[in-house]
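If I may wish for something, please walk me through the protein I am sending here so I can picture the backbone:
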Amino acid sequence: MIVARTVFQAKYGKANELVAHLKKAQDVFVKYGYPKGRVLTDLSGNMFTIVWENDWESLAAWDVSRSKVFSVPEFRPWFAEMEKLVESGSREFYSVE
């Protein structure tokens, strides 16, 4: 199993909006095969760090689903709104042992 963590640095004062926006995405994208996952807020590190964490069977499964979500009609408008809330981001993959 693979854990994919998309780590966002929210713009100042936009963390709560980003959390709500990610939760909204989970509700929409799950119908296209994207797992519900978890939205986490960092209580100890950099301020306004938000993590969207999802479990996947494999990296290949993540890649197939990611490509599919990019092509759904809801993605572009959702992403355009997210861009207004995010300062930067990164992605991490972990193998569950």
Notes: The radius of gyration is 13 Å. The first strand starts at residue 2 and ends at 10.
